[in-house]
Write a structure and sequence with these properties.
The complex is a heterodimer of chains A (462) and B (317). Chain A has 19 helices and 15 strands. By secondary structure, chain A is an alpha/beta fold. In chain B, α4 packs antiparallel against α10, α10 runs antiparallel to α13 and α12 runs antiparallel to α13. Classes of the chains: A alpha/beta (462), B mainly alpha (317).
Chain lengths: 462, 317
């Protein structure tokens, strides 16, 4: 009996150990620990390396996107031009990305190339020594760096203390209203130029059973776009500047109050589709527009690429309308101001061997900064931020891209997305409060005072 | 091993070697042998896992709760700063209140239904085992699967209920909807517990009650429920502690929304961690959750007599 009990105990121990081993090996996240192959017999004497890149995908609803395809093509081209080197692109979901990269950096296994939107979060990463600088601002402005071909304004979000830490990818991404032209003409409407016209159009659409505005409120950042534009149209760029630099009482600005109140008016008028508080940015929000169930959506210009992937005929038939955010009566902001992402970027982490760093920089220089990529971006509906890009616009998308490029060059002010420009702490609190405001469970006054005190605390502790 | 010592044909040496055994059921287990190597080999790995995955992280959480850290670089010690922040944080209090509501609603909804279904399933009859198989189905679906399934079903735009009440999108309704969906997921498990508990009640007790002239209602309250005492306590502890720390289904279905109407404390902790990058404050919330869970479980065990495990069947043959 004793023996069988001992055997049973050993069996249990063995099973537990196996189970523990199986659990741990099954749950590792995509490992991207540096692996350098030994020097190959290629003519150059630089050792070859394999690197991983995390890039946010624009594909939604399971459809492939032209942007993703263009980026994958870069890796393929690089691999064939550099035998022995490999660039593995892993496409990651937008909404989870910040969590994912933060996790990876804490654990020390972030990829060699990682996506970033710049601003506050990147500054934290730089301060922690996690990012490799690419060039100094003087190198860029003197023309001696490969980054010199990018529009100077596009590098601002990734420039810290005179060094540039990222290279633009996916082009510039201002936010526009994308609308269904057929739905508008069906009810005899043209896109509203003023806020008052927008409100009246909302009631027309509602009376015909069409959701006026499609909103992916579940992801919260689409809601932020309304606040960004309204604040700018009403009070000009100083409103956002004060908030982004954590000035005291920045949120009590009357322009902010008016913007928040206008948003609640829009909600009470039933402008958003049923269930707007929980719909995530998963393609359904786009589908509402291109199937005619909703009239318009306020979204970044990557939506062109997303819709191309989901319903290309909607774009090629000329049905996709793109319009500026309406003006607000009595507002002091310039109607040509833009809000959105001046660009998105990829950066090189310090979790890379010397060989991997060299390969990553070559990849940036030879692929991301190439004219081939700029052409592929244009075909995918993106607007590159290289000077001279307008020469490439052609085909179905030419009108959108020309307009975006012209708008970006001429915009008196291009406001950077508030959830990127502020610190992560303030950004998280702002998004939480905004989602409550949109759900009508928080008043503008309560939101302002909460954010003022939070920003003050954040400024004091940094 | 029935080595009851009888003095008739056993030598002195073997008498000393044979273990003594107390004859009363329910008392402490046999003593005198000590813990052998076999016991440690058996207990070792689970104990190690428990230490590594439960004790060590708890200690780390307590330590981090006194620091401020954004996940990169090194932590900055702030003493009781995070703890005072907790006492002044209306969001954390609101999350705590939502968690309490979730726990109470879950218990009130799940227990009567589980008892009812469990007793029903424990009965005899071929059809009952078919019903049992159907009730078990929700348990076979992963939590994420349950969340996605119900989210699609309740989708106000594209789901079968489109045009009607948007349960998950209304701040006022979302918490109730989530409670009911969690109940749907876990009632089968508790039903099983109660069914098994019911089957273990000796029939003689019911016969005795019938002889005494009890009607079915009296039998339920005087025989069934008392006999199910420990099942009720077990089920209750699992329900309460489970609802207290529940995260996955709420995260997938509503993410704490709309607004913050379903932001239970575990979700608040997650949101402090990502995207706010406040490891220190999140650790405060983690410690509070852990302490409250342990406290509730301890209190429930102590005051219900669960620890003593007194038999409910004294006098039954």
């Amino acid at each position: 009996m004793r023996r069988s009990r001992a055997l049973a105990a050993v069996a249990i121990a063995a099973m537990t150990a196996t189970g523990a081993a199986a659990c741990s090996s099954a749950s590792t996240s995509s490992s991207s620990s540096p692996t350098a192959t030994s020097a190959s017999s290629s003519p150059s004497s630089t050792p070859t390396a394999s690197i991983t890149a995390w890039i946010v995908t624009t594909a939604s609803a399971g459809q492939p996107s032209p942007s993703d395809a263009a980026e994958k093509a870069l890796a393929t081209a690089f691999d064939s031009a550099h035998p022995g080197d490999t660039v593995n692109i892993q496409f990651v979901n937008n909404d989870n990305y910040k969590t994912q990269i933060a996790n990876a950096m804490t654990a020390g296994n972030e990829p060699q190339i990682f996506w970033t939107w710049g601003g506050g979060p990147l500054q934290q990463d730089i301060a922690a020594g996690k990012v490799t600088p690419l060039a100094t601002t003087s190198q860029v402005s003197s023309g001696s760096s490969y980054l010199s071909q990018f529009l100077p304004s596009s590098l601002g979000a990734v420039t810290v203390n005179g060094e540039v830490y990222g290279i633009p990818i996916q082009g510039t991404q201002p936010v526009y209203f994308f609308y269904n032209k057929k739905v508008f003409s069906q009810y005899g409407l043209s896109f509203p130029k003023t806020w008052a016209e927008l409100l009246s159009d909302v009631s027309v659409f509602k009376s015909h059973g069409v959701a006026p505005i499609s909103l992916a409120g579940g992801s919260t950042w689409p809601e932020l776009m309304f606040l960004e534009y309204l604040a700018d149209r009403i009070g000009g760029p100083s409103v956002a500047d004060a908030i982004q630099s954590n000035k005291p009482d920045a949120w009590s600005n009357p322009a902010v109050t008016e913007a928040l109140t206008d948003i609640q008016t829009l909600i009470k008028d039933g402008a958003f589709q049923t269930g707007y508080t929980t719909l995530q940015d998963n393609g359904t929000n786009d589908a509402l527009v291109y199937t005619g169930k909703a009239a318009m959506q306020l979204m970044g210009d990557w939506d062109i690429s997303s819709i191309l992937g989901e319903d290309a005929s909607f774009v090629s038939s000329g049905n996709l309308g793109m319009a500026d955010f309406p003006t607000v009566a009595g507002g002091t902001g310039n109607p040509a101001d833009l809000a959105g992402n001046t660009a998105s970027y990829v950066a090189i982490s310090t979790n890379a061997t010397a060989a991997q760093k060299a390969v990553a920089e070559e990849f940036f220089q030879q692929e991301l900064a190439s004219s081939a990529y700029a052409k592929a971006q244009v075909a995918a509906g993106e607007v590159p931020v290289t000077s001279g890009a307008s020469a490439d616009f052609s085909g179905d998308l030419a009108s959108y891209e020309t307009q975006i490029y012209t708008d970006v060059r001429n915009a008196p002010n291009f406001q950077y997305s508030w959830d990127q420009a502020t610190t992560p702490g303030v950004s998280a609190e702002m998004l939480t409060d905004l989602s409550k405001l949109f759900a009508l469970s928080m008043t503008p006054a309560a939101m302002e005072s909460d954010l003022n005190s939070y920003a003050a605390k954040d400024a004091a502790s940094s | 091993m029935t080595a009851s010592a009888s003095t008739s044909n056993v030598s002195g040496a073997s008498l000393a070697a044979a273990p003594l055994r107390k004859q009363r059921g329910g008392g402490p287990a046999r003593r005198g042998r000590g813990s052998g190597l076999a016991d440690w080999v058996g207990v070792g790995p689970p104990l190690l896992l428990f230490l590594v995955f439960i004790i060590v992280p708890m200690i780390v959480a307590v330590v981090l709760s006194f620091a401020s850290w954004n996940g990169l670089g090194s932590p900055k010690w702030v003493g009781f700063g995070n703890w005072t922040q907790f006492f002044h944080d209306p969001q954390a209090h609101s999350s705590l209140w939502i968690t309490v509501k979730l726990v109470v609603f879950s218990y009130v909804v799940q227990t009567p239904i589980s008892i009812g279904l469990g007793l029903f399933t424990a009965g005899k009859g071929r059809l009952k085992s078919i019903y049992a198989a159907i009730y078990i189905l929700p348990m076979l679906i992963s939590t994420v699967g349950v969340a996605l399934m119900w989210e699609s079903f309740l989708d106000p735009l594209l789901g079968p209920l489109q045009g009607h009440q948007a349960w998950l999108s209304n701040p006022g309704d979302a918490l109730y909807a989530v409670t009911l969906i969690i109940a749907w997921q876990f009632i089968p498990f508790h039903t099983l517990l109660y069914a098994v508990g019911r089957r273990q009640i000796p029939a003689v007790l019911y016969e005795a009650a019938r002889i005494d002239g009890a009607n079915p209602v009296q039998m339920f309250f005087r025989v069934t429920l008392p006999q199910l005492r420990y099942t009720i306590i077990t089920s209750g502890i699992l329900m309460v502690v489970g609802a207290l720390t529940y995260f996955d289904i709420i995260f997938v279905m509503t993410g704490g929304g709309p607004g913050t109407s379903t932001r239970v404390l575990s979700l608040d902790m997650y949101d402090q961690l990502f995207p706010a990058n406040e490891f220190g404050y999140a650790s405060v919330l983690a410690v509070i959750l852990g302490v409250v869970g342990i406290a509730i479980a301890s209190v429930m065990v102590k005051f219900s007599g669960f620890g003593k495990m007194q038999s409910q069947q004294e006098g039954v043959a």
